[in-house]
Amino acid sequence: MAANQILPQESQAQRIGQRADKCFGANRPDAWRVHSLEGTDDAGLDFQVQIVDDSRYSAVFRVQLKGTESPTLSTAGDFYSISLERSTLNYYAKVTEPILLVLCDLSDKLAATKNCPCFFVWIHDELKRHRAAGKDTSGSDSLVVRVPVANKLDETLDLLPTLESKIRLHKTAAALDAMVEERLPSAAPDERITLLENLATGLSRYDSTLLTVVAAPITSPWPEAPKGTFAGKLTEVDRLLQTGFANKARPILDTLRPELEQATTHEQAEYWFCIGRVVAWSGDNASAARHYDQACSLTSNLPRYVTAWAETQLSLLYDPDGGNDLAVIKSRLTSDEPDVKTALARILAAEGDSASAIGVLASLDRALALPTLGIIASMQGRHDDTIALCDEGLARADLPHRHQQLLYLLRARAKFAISMPEDVRNAGDYFIAAWSGPAKLDGPLLRSAWNDIVHTVALMREAGWPSNVEFIADIWGATALMLGRADEAFAFAKEAATTRPHIESVQRTLELLAVNIEDYDSALAANECQPKSAEQEFRKIGILHQAKSHIKCLEAVEAGVDRLSQEHQLYPVSVALGVLSADRLLLSDRAEVLAKRLQAQPEWEDHYAVLKFFRAAGTNVLGREAALQVLLDDFRRLKGPKAVALQLFYVLDASDAKQAADCIEVAECIRKFQQLGLDGEFSWRKRMSRCKTGARCYPWPTVQFLNMTMLAASTPFGRSR
Prior knowledge:
The chain is of the alpha+beta class. The protein has 33 helices and 11 strands.
């Protein structure tokens, strides 16, 4: 070929591009005002189109034009497939204006180009389809776009309604941003965008009902799921559990079980969370932990669920004797959410790593950290620090009720501990003392502790008696007895015990209060709810005797006389009660067998001395003075044992000149080991007037057996939480 014949050549792509331009120009509507973007910086976009409606420019969009002489049509013939570079699609995703992909089918070689058909699809609709299928995150270099055959572009096409809808969506997004800016004026633009992105992600996890409720006219301060829906029933269950009606919540959950598979992921998680809360009410923490774990698995450890799981696991794994390795719990507490961090701090403290626990709390707002700081101080026995932290927290006006409840509880326990003498405070898990309290008791501080106990109980009652009631129950009962408040404490204690029948400390408190007010049926019911133990059986014997169930009392003593520990302080008292019940039943042989057992042990001589007094006074009223003198002789011979001194306190008559000196002697002895009255005063005149008016003087069983209670000496959170 001659040199002058060498000329620029048109490529196939250029030829097809020219045909596509001609085809597009021939088929587009007359209302479109098309401006070529060739030569501009709009990579991947060919035209900008403005739509004129009634002589007004009403909308604008971009066009990406593709032409093909060998199109790929689906088997069903309902859409064309065209491959686009991922980089191009990534760019399209960043463009806010609508983008129309137009495909010109130039495959009919016999047809004039202007008569070839054109089809279209909105690029952002295809991007949405790829996101839904998970293909937007695949590693391929290209993605296939589908162009529906039904979307034919011709002169009659009206895209204005579609574009107006897209404009409305854009305006809505702008309105949401303006709303966030108004509600959170301190938020920077990037922060507002992040919040709106999270809002979209969060709403997608809920049932569509939530969107309907939020969009409806406002009828309440917060969105509420409609009654009868799955979410609405879960809301009702939550309300019932917050007010202590687990028995009413379970039937509702049972009705939801068949619908669970059709529920959203979040609804399923909330269902299992509520099931866990229900079984936790009955004390089945192992099952509760499993259900909380199901909720965590469905939501990638949502803070509400993972903190409940962590607290329950702690109650299952914690060893009060130390050596706790709680790594399995810590491994899941990785969120920066405040509730998760406070849970992590409690786990670290339970492991004995208080320094790390305090370090975690240092990153939180002081108000959020105070309750857990109080728990740590309580666990370490730093009672003054506990009170100071609680005072600081309770002084805050915006304190949530659950934190208020916890801080009152911690402060009550700290004050109670300080009010006790050092020997009682360090006595271990419990210390047996008289109802009037040990010697050297700080009465004013105990009354201050009572005020905090009353606040705690009121808040717990309002919350439906949560599980933390076990941490107030022991000092609630003990303080009520020492301050003479058993009558006013009994009704709420019975309500708590009915709601939480599996919590031993609550049943123990109810038993003590019931005995004090002589409601022996309630006392026996509470006793039966407690785990079987020697002490539980000993106390049951005392209640049966006081209830005048003498045959049951005697049978219980005889059944346990060789089985129960003779080292227990209540063993000799129980044997003596068996003797007295046998005497009431005129079963002298059985009474003597038990009496000889008591008499045979020198260390039980004080109890035997008191038994002798009651047996003598009971069989011969005229011989009461002689029996009392024998008891006084035994008191002096045995060097003032507590068992005898307490009984003499109730039987001596301070108005009798002969017995007045004996009263003073006994009083001085009692002051060595316990309080004589609420304010440390020994008022013989009151006792004398009670006897003169015919009021009942307490018999030996009440003084020696039921005039004992367990006073907690250790902090609650060091034991099980």
